[in-house]
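Backbone-to-sequence.
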């Protein structure tokens, strides 16, 4: 479980303090599929940085699994960070490394190897046959699937996704949405999804927080989306989306 208590964060630009988050109080339950929505500059990405430890709040407390992050030692913060993984909009793959090496990278950085885990995850995301390929040989959707496999290789308790579908075409978006649903069902991490694409949040999440200029304005429960219609072609899918 993640609890934010009166969390605020400001950045200084041109000698002026600009608030990114203002007195945020929020609770995310263990195992949730939780969405965070808002326009550009609303504080969504800042919140993810605070959760994963890339930034610290100016005021307030972030409590994760019962532990106040302000009270952790450096080593404890590192251990906490390893319990979280991120999926990025632009994939953040190393283009001079193979799909296998990119997937194994978090283990490599910890001085570990686990061929079974890496190949198991590549099979899970449908890319075992691409293990020796390089990112430039992959489509956008395939790159994001590699990024998701990489994020899962350390068995994280929390999966933080920052606009994971924004750089993808329609088919790629649908593939990633289905994959994240399967990730949640199979591995049961808490998934926190930041996106400006409201349709993606609605398809994936059970609750969503709405941010506006750094302020949490509402947290809403989302209705369950019934089984999606399948299409025989891109043209059929595009027509349905555009006319709905």
């Amino acid at each position: 479980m993640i609890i934010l208590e009166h969390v605020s964060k400001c950045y200084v630009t041109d000698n002026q303090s600009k608030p990114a988050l203002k007195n945020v109080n929020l609770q995310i339950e263990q195992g949730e599929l939780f969405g965070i929505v808002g326009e550009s500059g609303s504080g969504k990405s800042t919140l993810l940085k605070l959760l994963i430890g890339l930034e610290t709040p100016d005021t307030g407390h972030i409590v994760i699994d019962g532990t106040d992050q302000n009270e952790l030692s450096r080593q404890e913060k590192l251990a906490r960070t390893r319990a979280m993984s991120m999926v990025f909009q632009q994939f953040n793959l190393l283009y001079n490394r193979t799909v296998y090496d990119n997937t194994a990278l978090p283990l490599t950085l910890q001085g570990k190897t686990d061929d079974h885990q890496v190949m198991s995850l590549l099979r899970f995301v449908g890319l075992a046959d691409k293990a020796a390929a390089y990112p430039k040989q992959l489509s956008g959707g395939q790159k994001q699937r590699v990024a998701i496999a990489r994020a899962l290789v350390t068995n994280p308790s929390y999966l933080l996704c920052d606009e994971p579908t924004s750089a993808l075409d329609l088919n790629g978006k649908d593939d990633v949405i289905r994959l994240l649903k399967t990730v949640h069902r199979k591995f049961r991490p808490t998934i926190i999804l930041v996106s400006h694409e409201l349709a993606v949040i609605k398809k994936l999440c059970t609750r969503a927080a709405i941010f506006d200029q750094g302020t949490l304005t509402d947290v809403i429960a989302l209705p369950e989306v019934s089984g999606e219609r399948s299409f025989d072609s891109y043209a059929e899918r595009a027509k349905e989306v555009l006319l709905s």
